[in-house]
Design brief:
Keywords: Viral release from host cell. This is Phage terminase large subunit. It holds the Pfam family Terminase_6C. This protein is an alpha/beta fold. It contains 17 helices and 17 strands. Helix 1 packs across helix 2 and helix 15 crosses helix 17. 36% of the residues are buried.
Amino acid sequence: MPSFEPNSPQPSPSFDVSASIQRVKTLREEAARRRQRTELRSSMVAWSVAAGYHPAHHHEALIAELELLEADDEVDTLLVFMPPGSGKSIYTNHLFPAWYVARHPERNVLTASHSSELAERFGRKTRNLMVEHEGELGVSLSSDSQAANRWATTAGGEYYAVGVGVGIAGFRADLGIIDDPFGSREDAESRRMRDRVWDWYSDDFSTRLKPGAKKVIMHTRWHDDDLAGRIIRQLDAIARPYRVLSLPAQAGLGDPLGRQMGDFLWDDGEYGYGAQLRRRKEEVDTRTWASLYQQVPVPEGGAYFEREWIKPSKGSPDRETLNVYGASDYAVTAGGGDYTVHIVVGIDPAGNMYVLDMWRKQADSGEWIAAWCDLVKKWRPIEWAEETGQIRSALGPMMDAAAREAKAYVYRRQFPTRGDKAVRAQSIRARMSMRGLYIPGDAPWRKDFEAELLRFPAGVHDDQVDAIALVGQLLDRARPGIAPKAPPKPINGLSGYKTMRTGGGSWRT
């Protein structure tokens, strides 16, 4: 039986130094990952850099607005207007959804683009980004829900990407993003397409958002009545707060980025975006530059009709020297959003055009027919222009009967309806460019009329332009007014007589 000396050392377990070092290293790495996750979740700039992007100054301004929207309990709508190629979709429709999901993995995100294909492409990119940076973000995707346009997190949150116009059933979102609802200028200028997009926004997209949900509406400003324009008018009407970030390609007064007037966007790096903008400004027309690049659908000086063509006048020439013509753009449905417009134009002996009178109102047929009769009796026009399609809607017989009763007689010339309003207005545009259009400076309707001319074809309303365009088609057959004849000069103090001399005598005849 072994024996031990009382003071002999006891055996101790072996100590693995390498395992201890590795454990400390692992703890440090985990702490670093936790710090990184905290930083990425608290700063979208940090997240953008981690994802491989390098935000420029205007991207940082956009990021600041997105972060504010996510954190602000008072404002739920952000509108973003930036020129093509400036990176707005990358940060708003790619990086922001991923960052939002990292902060709120249990919430739902709904994104939409003008086509289902584009929406799915962004959905795929965002999904792949989430998978690639799963460790840094601390969010995992569910293995049974990873489709390109619809995927979910293990915490229960979902992401859904759709095309504008597509029905959205069975999904409720905490964050909704619309990225370029119009695929082209043609779509944005089509009243039918604008109505379709608005109906979808009101009836599908908005109804799929949860109470307190946040919205980002982002696109270039093609038209004054585009989706953003309608949203702004809607929110202003109900006094609901919203935020707008509008970054023009070239800085003007009060630039939101603090640029000097004339400075181009993103002009301080190797990417070459500023140089590209300079070339585009030289290549495109005024209206395209104003809307697509400056985020102002209508340039200050006008687009289709130029401001210098509109000439305020203190009055009009004597009625007896004018040839007078009229035109009407009829609205068949009262209160349906469209106006009926009657316009009266006089042509002086030099061929100059004067707007003599205007009537514009959302009214039923009885009211505007009575107003038309009054104008015909007041101005005694030679001809009156109108569209064939509108008269065929049974309004013609009503106007005939009313005119006979009121003794308001004029020859009504009808022109076929053509879909392209700019083509219809070409005749009056050509005359205005050469001779201008004189408008009474004190007319109560002058400012609205001028504003519609200068905003055409990007304005909300174009009924007055339609009416003056009909006058333009009529004037292709019109003739100038007649200058009054000067009275005969008196001879030998006897006005109206002339002397005839024969032989030595004279006769006054």
